[in-house]
Amino acid sequence: MSRVFSGIQPTGEPHIGNYFGAMRNYVRLGEQYGKQSLYCVVDLHAITNPAASDPRYLAARTFDMAVANFAVGLDPSQVTFFVQSHVPEHQELAWIFTCLTPVGELERMTQYKDKTAQLESVPAGLLMYPALMAADILLYKAGVVPVGEDQTQHIELTREIARKFNHHFGETFPEPQAVYNKEALRIPGVDGHGKMSKSKGETSTLGILEPLDSVWQKLRVAPTDPARVRRTDPGNPDVCLIFDYHKLFSDLPTIELVNVECRRAGIGCVDCKKKLMEGVTAHLTPIQERAEELRADPSYVRDALAQGAQEARAIAAPVMEEVREKVGFLKV
Ligand code: SF4
């Protein structure tokens, strides 16, 4: 059976875009692949961005990301969930891949260009980021990689690195396939300005662990169909982000009711938002309660991460042995 690998950035509280776009998919794949699905909080990647990896918060954010994923239903006893820096083989393999990868190919990466555009001094780690990502995936010989579409170029490079390694040192790594979840791209920010994104700040996001009254305050003032000026004006749910959210959180009869009543001004926007809030509350309350339980029992989370790292290393160690031998390192 093929393995699944996905890296999760420890960058603050996940929002509903992360939840519907990635986290729910992890749970689904976890049920399908069991221990062969590996999820890794990528703290080594996080430190390539000094602004997002303040040492005062990095450990807490890593811990919180584990809590959030466990709270949405990822069961660490059923999948392999760990922290990247707890498995040093990632760095060892990344170095070997760094030595195989032309600088020109790394400089071509769109994300690298975007991230460095505003920097006066570029950390070498930012350039090597895709080599570390290739190591994350290939260390487990993973065949399935659930990612966002912005990672297409990195996955292509991973496949290229696998081919190059196999060509130089003999058949070792499979070429992984990216599995995209397009739902993530369609979730608009609550401020109405494009896709929901952490980089745009809290006004764009609805956090899955955000207090529900704060969620409501954001929904209350969220933009609706701009053509619907008065309560008596018919609206068009197809251009309204509140209707997009209904499709995520509400049951079918509610979605249908909003779809019909909005168009004939049979429902006002405030009532429509209140109905949405019922779905949001039903959805997020059990997740938030579970997160509270996990935070109250930090040793459970730490033990689960220690166990996950052990399981990951049990897969990684023989792969690294094979790699060291093929690369030609002296064995003593
Ligand atoms: S009734 Fe609902 S779907 Fe229609 S414009 Fe108002 S908030 Fe949007």
Automatic annotation (TrEMBL):
Its EC number is 6.1.1.2. It is found in: Cytoplasm. PANTHER family: TRYPTOPHAN--TRNA LIGASE, MITOCHONDRIAL (PTHR43766:SF1). InterPro entries: aa-tRNA-synth_I_CS, aa-tRNA-synth_Ic, Rossmann-like_a/b/a_fold, Trp-tRNA-ligase, Trp-tRNA-ligase_bac-type, Trp-tRNA_synthetase. This is Tryptophan--tRNA ligase. It comes from Deinococcus reticulitermitis. Pfam families: tRNA-synt_1b (PF00579). Homodimer. ATP binds at Q9, P10, T11, G17, N18, G148, E149, D150, I187, K195, M196, S197, K198, S199. Belongs to the class-I aminoacyl-tRNA synthetase family. The gene is trpS. Catalyzes the attachment of tryptophan to tRNA(Trp). Gene3D superfamilies: HUPs, Tyrosyl-Transfer RNA Synthetase. It is an enzyme of class 6 (ligase).
